[in-house]
Amino acid sequence: MIFDAAVLGRTLRVEVTERGGLYAVLIDGKAFEVDYRETGRDFVSLLVDGKSYEAGLEPRAGACIVHLPADTLEVELGEAARGAALGAKKAAGPARVVAPMPGKIVRVLVAPGQEVPAGQGLVVMEAMKMENELRAPRGGVVEQVAVREGQTVENGALLAVVT
Fold first, then answer.
1. Per-residue pLDDT reduced to its tens digit, 21-57
2. Which of 8, 68, 88, 144 is the most buried (most CB within 10 A)?
């Protein structure tokens, strides 16, 4: 999805792509890897390139007020230029969960044939001295688990498939 966001009088071009439960975000051409988790009503936890942030979100018509520990920002959101709008239904078909970076599989949390809701943990991967739980991008049935505990994987390696 590509859209414009106006913050502090500056308009930024934002491109968001989901990859294995994480998000690749380009803001005016600068790349970030983001893990986004809802932690309560209108609160989120963000892991941006390995740095943790907590924020409160207050949706408004055409905008969002973002409450950070040291600041409050109003972000005006433009129409999506390309791709699905936030909350739009995702395409059908298998969802492949891949390693967002090289690492080691610490735990496998599911088995083939298991039904999972969107957001359920599939595998726990250690990368850069941090454990990351990779989650189902949507609800479905685990068709394949392509890794085992203790296995080392490369960036982009297939971890699981949810149908």
1. 788 989 888 999 999 888 877 888 889 988 998 988 8
2. 144
Cα(107)–Cα(95) distance, integer angstroms = 20
- Strands 95-98 and 158-162 come out as antiparallel
Q: Quick one: tokens of 109?
A: 């949390």
Tokens linked to 155 = 């960036």
For residue 79, pLDDT beyond 70: no
For the record, the structure tokens of 45 come out as 């936890």
Cross-strand bridge partners of residue 130: 127
Strand partners for 2 = 15, 82
CA separation (Å) from 132 to 12, 85, 110, 125, 128?
29, 27, 15, 5, 10
Q: If residue 31 lies in a helix (H) or strand (E), which one and from where to where?
A: strand 30-40
Tell me the fold of 2-77: Glycoprotein, Type 4 Pilin (3.30.700)
- Distance (Å, rounded) from C-alpha 120 to C-alpha 137? 8
Q: Are 1 and 23 in contact (CB under 8 A)?
A: no
CATH fold of 95-162 reads: OB fold (Dihydrolipoamide Acetyltransferase, E2P) (2.40.50)
Cα 102 from Cα 151, distance rounded (Å): 11
pTM equals 0.47
